[in-house]
Design brief:
Helix content: 10-25%
Protein name: Esterase
Pfam family, one: Esterase
Distance between the termini: 60 Å
Number of helices: 11
Radius of gyration: 25 Å
CATH architecture of the largest domain: 3-Layer(aba) Sandwich
Organism: Emticicia oligotrophica (strain DSM 17448 / CIP 109782 / MTCC 6937 / GPTSA100-15)
Keywords: Signal
C-alpha cells in the first residue's frame, strides 16, 4: 500500500480530526444518501472495512449520515458531527501509522403504507452486509502517518464499487425460489421479494404421487442451502487453516466433510423423505426479518406463512397442512423457530429452538428491560460497572453491552446499522414519529424507555405470550416446544431460557410436554447434542432435527393421519 503524507489523492468530502482532515472525492452520481464510514486500521492483514468488530481486535470507524448530498461538494466530518468506535471522538486518535479507507453505505427512499418516508439500505443479494453490499462505493486502503500536533490533510479518492452477486444455480437436489410478496410490496411501496433454497428428497422425481412434510430451517441469510455437498472434500484443501473460535486447525475441511456426510445420509435408505427449506428474507434492517409481523419491518410473518410456504408446498408437492410442517434453527433462527410456533399455533407442528435469541425479556441478554433503568450500567451510587455483552466459556469478557451498541451507532443512526441490537429494536419496537423504530433505550446513555419495553412485552416476549395465551392455545402448543442452550452461551442467552423453562414447567391444562436442555460449559450454537463438540453439532441441524421431528410427530399429528407414504 502506498504511503502518503499531505494531499495525496483527490477527495472532496472532508473528514476532520482535531488538526487532521481527510478529503474524499466521490464519483459523479448526483445526490447521495447513506452512511459515510471512515475506517482506520493499525495493520494491513485485511482491508479496514473487514476489521470493524466487537471485541479486542477491532479497528477504528467513524460515521456520518449523508442526506441528499451533492456528489461534487465537500463534506466535513469533525469532532462535533461524528461518532466513532471504539474511540468516540476523532480528536482522540493516537499518533501513528494507519491504513485508511472510506466507504459509503447507500440508502434508498421508501414511501411506506403507513405514510412514513424513510431512508434505508435495501438488501442487494448479500444479506445486509454493509462492507459487502453491491453498489456501495469505497476507496482503496492507503497508509498515512497521523500526528495530531500538526495540521494535516489527506486526500482519498472513492473509485471502487462492490460488484453484483451471482445468483445460485439449481441442481438435481437443490432448487431456488423467489416470489414477489403482495403483502410486503404493499407495505413498502415497491416490489419486495422473499425466497428459499429447497432441498428435494431422494426419489422426488420417481415418486410423483407422494406428498411430503416440510422442514423449515430458520437462520441468517443463506447464500445457498447450507451443509449439503454431493462430492467429497476438496483433496487439495489445506488443513493448516485455523479457526480462532473453535481453536482447531483444518475446520474448512471438516465443514465440507460434514456436508458430504449429510448428502450420503439424505440419499440413503433410512432418512425420512421430506422437503427441507432455508428461507431468504433479508429486510432493510438486517440479514433476515425475524419471520414475524412488525410495525417497522412489515408483515414478514404473514408473507412467509401464507405466501411463501404455500407456494413451495404447491410447487414441490408438500402436504400443505400445519401438522406436516416444523421449524428449527439456532440463534436468530432459534428465536424464529419458537416465535412462528407461538405466533401461528395452527400452522406449524413443532419447533426446535437452539441457543435462541432472548425469549424472555427479563433476561434480554444481561438486561431486564422491565426493571432495570439503564441497559449499559448496573445501578450503583458510587461506581459505574458495565453490563457484560460477550464472554467465552470460561467467562472471560471481551465486549460490554455499551461497547457493542456504540459500534452499531457508529455504523448507522436510527437503528440502521444492520447489526444485532438494532434488528431487535427494529422488529420489537413501535414506529416512532419520524418513521424509524422507537429506541428501547438511548443509544448513547443506555437509559431504558419503559413504554417501549411494555410494547415489547405484549408483542414479542415469547415466554410472556406463552403464559398469557396458554388457556387459549395450550392444546396447539402442547408437545411442540423444544429449547436447547449452552449454559455458557457467549451472549448470555441461557439466562432467558432458564426463565422460560420455569414458566413452561408451571403450565397446566395441558402440561407443556416439551423439552428444555442445556449443554455443560457449551458456548453459543449448542443445539442439544451431548455427544459431539460444538464445532461439529452446529453443522448437523438437518440430520439431527428432521429424524427427531418425524418421531415426535407421532404424538402431535392428528389421529388417523398418513405418516408412512413418504417413508419409502
Amino acid at each position: 500500500m502506498k504511503k502518503i503524507s499531505f494531499i495525496a489523492l483527490l477527495f472532496i468530502c472532508s473528514i476532520s480530526f482535531a488538526q487532521t482532515s481527510f478529503s474524499v472525492k466521490f464519483p459523479s452520481s448526483g445526490t447521495l444518501d447513506g452512511r459515510l464510514l471512515l475506517m482506520l486500521s493499525k495493520n494491513d492483514q485485511s482491508e479496514p472495512r473487514f476489521q470493524i468488530l466487537d471485541g479486542h481486535n477491532t479497528q477504528l470507524v467513524f460515521g456520518l449520515d449523508l442526506d441528499n448530498w451533492p456528489s461534487n461538494q465537500n463534506k466535513v466530518m469533525n469532532v462535533k458531527n461524528t461518532l466513532g468506535y471504539p474511540i468516540e471522538a476523532l480528536s482522540n486518535i493516537p499518533a501513528g501509522d494507519y491504513y485508511v479507507q472510506v466507504l459509503l453505505h447507500k440508502y434508498e427512499t421508501f414511501k411506506r403504507k403507513d405514510g412514513h418516508v424513510v431512508k434505508l439500505p435495501m438488501d442487494r443479494g448479500e444479506g445486509q452486509q454493509w462492507n459487502l453490499a453491491p453498489g456501495n462505493i469505497y476507496s482503496k486502503p492507503i497508509k498515512v502517518t497521523i500526528n495530531p500536533k500538526t495540521v494535516q490533510n489527506f486526500e482519498i479518492k472513492i473509485d471502487q464499487t462492490i460488484p453484483p452477486i451471482e445468483e445460485p444455480k439449481d441442481t438435481k437436489y437443490i432448487k431456488h425460489i423467489k416470489i414477489q410478496s403482495k403483502l410486503l410490496t404493499e407495505f413498502w411501496g415497491r416490489p419486495m421479494y422473499i425466497g428459499a433454497h429447497v432441498l428435494l428428497p431422494e426419489g422426488f422425481d420417481e415418486h410423483k404421487d407422494v406428498k411430503y412434510p416440510l422442514a423449515i430451517f430458520h437462520g441468517h441469510f443463506p447464500n445457498d442451502f447450507d451443509g449439503f455437498r454431493t462430492t467429497p472434500p476438496d483433496a487439495n484443501m489445506p488443513t493448516d487453516d485455523y479457526s480462532p473460535r473453535f481453536k482447531i486447525y483444518g475446520y474448512n475441511k471438516i465443514v465440507q466433510q460434514e456436508a458430504y456426510d449429510f448428502y450420503k445420509l439424505w440419499t440413503g435408505p433410512n432418512f425420512p423423505r421430506v422437503l427441507a427449506i432455508e428461507i431468504q428474507h433479508p429486510c432493510q434492517f438486517y440479514d433476515d426479518s425475524y419471520a414475524v409481523n412488525s410495525e417497522n419491518i412489515g408483515p414478514y410473518g404473514d408473507a412467509i406463512t401464507y405466501e411463501l410456504i404455500p407456494y413451495i408446498e404447491k410447487k414441490f408437492r408438500g402436504i400443505g397442512e400445519g401438522w406436516a410442517r416444523f421449524t428449527y434453527g439456532g440463534s436468530t433462527g432459534g428465536w424464529e423457530a419458537l416465535a412462528v410456533q407461538v405466533k401461528y399455533p395452527n400452522e406449524y407442528g413443532g419447533c426446535y429452538a437452539a441457543c435462541p435469541d432472548p425469549i424472555d425479556f427479563r433476561a434480554f441478554t444481561t438486561v431486564n428491560i422491565y426493571k432495570d433503568k439503564n441497559a449499559y450500567f448496573y445501578e450503583s451510587d458510587f461506581r459505574k460497572t458495565e453490563r457484560p455483552g460477550y464472554r467465552d466459556y470460561l467467562g472471560q469478557l471481551t465486549a460490554t453491552v455499551r461497547q457493542m451498541n456504540m459500534r452499531e451507532l457508529a455504523l448507522g443512526t436510527k437503528t440502521r446499522s444492520g447489526q444485532q441490537w438494532d434488528i431487535w429494536e427494529a422488529v420489537f419496537s413501535p414506529v416512532g414519529k419520524d418513521g424509524y423504530p422507537q429506541p428501547i433505550w438511548d443509544k448513547k446513555t443506555g437509559v431504558i424507555d419503559p413504554k417501549v419495553a411494555e410494547y415489547w412485552k405484549e408483542n414479542y416476549d415469547l415466554t410472556y405470550i406463552l403464559k398469557r395465551d396458554w388457556a387459549k392455545y395450550g392444546e396447539k402448543w402442547r408437545g411442540k416446544i423444544r429449547i436447547y442452550c449452552g449454559d455458557m452461551d457467549n451472549f448470555y442467552l441461557n439466562n432467558a431460557v432458564y426463565l422460560a423453562e420455569e414458566e413452561l414447567k408451571n403450565l397446566n391444562s395441558p402440561a407443556y410436554e416439551g423439552e428444555v436442555d442445556y449443554g455443560d460449559r457449551a458456548e453459543h450454537c449448542w443445539n442439544g447434542d451431548h455427544t459431539q463438540p460444538n464445532y461439529i453439532s452446529r453443522l448437523r441441524y438437518h440430520r439431527m432435527f428432521i429424524p427427531k421431528w418425524v418421531e415426535d410427530m407421532k404424538k402431535t399429528a392428528p389421529k388417523g393421519i398418513d405418516l408412512t407414504s413418504w417413508r419409502y
